Fold this protein.
Amino acid sequence: QVQLVESGGGLVQPGGSLRLSCAASGFILDYFGIGWFRQAPGKEREGVGCISSNDDRTYYADSVKGRFTISRDKGKNTVYLQINPLQPEDTAIYYCATEPLAVAGCDLAPASYPSDYWGQGTQVTVSS
């Protein structure tokens, strides 16, 4: 059974940093493209970045380039999202999701990830 569990969220002051984790079980995360998404109150879920399955290339939304970094730890079957520096507009629930097929590349569109392939999310709040 595919399971993803996010962790690492919390309350952080502007300018601070966080590293979110997306731990996988039931499948080898390395073989699949993994996306990171966020949803702020009253807004649609948006893709912030993803890491490709075949070459670990990373892709980011223009709004977060230079501040978000995605990496993969194959030994821990975990993908990370580093955010630095955090800004108040980063306040949201952050989710990771896995693509359903082991194909090259990855996708920033939430609709590309089936509903059963998402984690439960972790809350990030940026406030002074």
User: Anything to note?
Assistant: The radius of gyration is 13 Å. The mean pLDDT is 94.
